[in-house]
Every structure is written in structure tokens, then in C-alpha cells.
Amino acid sequence: AAASSTAFTQTQLPPLKVGLMLPATGTFAALGDMIERGFKLHVEEQGGKLGGRTIQYFKVDDESDPSKATDNVNKLIKRDNVDVIVGTVHSGVALAMARAAKDSNTMLIVPNAGADAITGPQCAPNIFRSSFSNWQPGYATGVVAAGKGYKRAMTITWNYAAGNETVKGFTEAFEKGGGKVIKDLSLPFPGVEFQPLLTEIASQKPDVVFAFFAGGGAVKFVKDYDAAGLKKSIPLVGSGFLTDGTLEAQGASAQGLITALHYGDNIETPRNTAFRNKFAVTYKVNPDVYALQGYDAAQMLAIGLATVKGDLGKKDALYAAMNKAQIDSPRGKFTLSPQRNPTQDFYVREVKGNYNVVTGIAVKALADPGRGCKP
Ligand code: PHB
Q: Distance (Å, rounded) from C-alpha 369 to C-alpha 119?
């Protein structure tokens, strides 16, 4: 009889098991979806194989719920026995994932969550990030706001690692640039009861407001800020998540907003144009920063696996190849810091229609300080 088409010859390796732990529900659901699409797009560009191995996906909806994170990641590590974990969006969930990845020595690529500790005190040779540290976009936005001459700022965010660390980065750069943060406002994640906080902003009348929100929460915040009459009187700036993947839903309320981020829709390089066209043709929707980060997570994995020809047992060579790679990202080429976080340019962007249009560079080659990582 003919050999089964699923049989392996002796030189063939079994499929590589990739565990996708992303939010499929809640305020970050759309972000998780875009990360998965970006990741799979690059795998498809490689003919569906990385390092000669086909990919088998395992999926867990993490619900952006830190209290379920350890159980959820162990479904991938212990039950499914995955080779690589890709995830997630929420910093609190990602911190639990990093602990489990470190303890089990499972490779983890973080395609969004910025928790500073992941490439700081909790760093490990098997943990990589294709996105940013929370400090980075906060710091870049602080540079932009100080550069505009604003002196008195208020900040507003969700009270959790990403919000607090982003505000810290903003404050560091804004005060270094001669400004002063007069008050920090926050509400619990993923709350959207912004009214009392907007009332306080109206009464304090700062020169500028810095906000970190993302996903569904960012849509509501930008609309509420406008509806409260504040958009006309007090400039609103944010790390670019405030207006990324959200513009169709935000409509007129987002027009003209200035943000800083490591991506912009109209970066006019052949690399970005090709990425955007391919993504749009494949999924009938334009990519955003989350799609980009998923795509680059796959690029990083592809580089490592190509070097070891799909043999994950060669961990030293695999990690070394990823560490020293220059990633040809649609955002612009980037490298990884010694703590394995992208060192990358941060752009100034302005909302025009449904696009975050790059108008300048906020900070070139911004490296996370990587404080507390003992490599
Ligand atoms: C985070 O929790 O780290 C986070 C979530 C959404 C973003 C950015 C950071 O857009």
C-alpha cells in the first residue's frame, strides 16, 4: 500500500507546536485577533514552515484576566506540550506567562504586553519581545509633549502595570524636558467610567493630558473626552495605542490627535508597503500596530529556527541567532537589546481620517534601560 501522507521520513521533524495565548474576548479582543493574523501571515509567506517544520497551532483565550493566567498558560505548557508560546496583550497576564516560561524553560515571544519586568528583573534567555517595553512609548510621548512647550500635565490610565509604567516613562521624559506632571488619575482595568475623571481634568485645566488606553477602552475614552468638550480646550496626547486599531470607531473624536509609537500607517518603505498590501489582500482589513507585532514575532522565530534547521534542542544557537538578528520589520529595521527587547525608532503620528500619519521622529533608536535584568 502507498505510504500514509502523514508519515515522516527519518530526516523530517514533526510539526512545531506553537501556543497562541491571546485575548479573544473583552476590551483587547480585537488586538489579539490582529496579532494572530500578523503572525500567521508571515508563516504563510514562509510557505507554512519555519526551519523546515510545519506549524501546529494551539490556542487559549486569556480573557486579559491575570487571575486565570497561570492556569491558562499551563494548558499550553503542560497539557499541549507546546514548543513555543506566543502571547499576550495584557501586561498582568504576560507577567504570569513569563514566570511559567522561565520555570519550564519554554520559549516565549511576547507580541505586545509591555510589562517592564519581562525584559528587566524577570528576564530569561528564552524570553523575547517583538513589541516594546511600557517605558518606551511613554518616554517617547513625554519627549513630544515637552517639545511642544506644555508645562503642566495630567495623566489618566487604567491602574495596572501597563498604565502605571507608561505614565512613569511619560513623566520621566516630560519633567526632564522642563514640564511637571501635576496629577495622575486612574481607574481599574478595564473600566470605562471616565466621567468623574474628566470633570476633574476640566477643573484643573492642565496644559496637556497624557492618556494610556487601548482597544475598546481607548475608543470610549477618546469619544468621551470629545463629548465632554475637552478636545477643544485641553490637548490630549497618548502613547499611540490610544488611536491604533480604533480609528473607524472613534471617528471625528480622534481627528488631529498626536501620539508617539514605534509604528505608523504611512511609513513609505517598500517593506511596509508590501506588508500592508499583503495583509489587506489576505484579511480584507488594514493592519495596525498589533498585526505588525505579531508579524515580527513570527519573523524572529523564523530567523532562530532557520539557524538551527528546526532543531529546538540547539537552544544556545537558537537564542543567539535571535539575539543578534536585525529584524527587517515594516516599522523599520530593529535589533534586540541585551535584555531581548526591541531597540527601535519612535514616531510622532497625527490622526488623519482612518490613519495614524507619521509627521516626524520622537526618539531615534530608543532602547529600554533593561533595569534589573541579570543576563
Ligand atoms: C499592556 O497591558 O501591556 C498593553 C495592552 C494594550 C496595549 C499596550 C500595552 O495597547
A: 9
Tens digit of each residue's pLDDT (9 = 90 or more) over 105-140: 999 999 999 999 999 999 999 999 999 999 999 999
pTM higher than 0.70 = yes
Per-residue pLDDT, averaged over 76-97, amounts to 98
CA 260 / ligand 1 centre spacing (Å)? 14
Residue 28, Cα to own-chain centre: how many angstroms? Answer: 11
Going from the Cα of 341 to the center of ligand 1, the distance in angstroms, rounded, reads 15
> Which residue, by CA, sits nearest to atom 7 of ligand 1?
214
> Which residues, in sequence order, are CB contacts of 177 under 8 Å at separation 6+?
142, 143, 145, 146, 147
Cβ of 90 less than 6 Å from ligand 1: yes
Ligand 1 center from residue 91 Cα (angstroms) = 6
Are the CB atoms for 123 and 339 separated by under 8 Å?
A: yes
In sequence order, what DSSP letters do the residues of 170-221 get, joined into one string?
HHHHHHHTT-EEEEEEEE-TT----HHHHHHHHHH--SEEEEE--HHHHHHH
- What is the CA angle 49-78-299, rounded to 5? 25
- Which of 28, 97, 110, 165 to probe ligand 1 with, by most ligand atoms within 8 A of CB? 28
Distance CA 63, CA 54 (A): 28
User: Which is nearest to 140 in space by CA: 355, 296, 367, 295?
Assistant: 367
CB 322 within 8 A of CB 306: no
Residue 375: pLDDT band by 50, 70, 90 thresholds? low
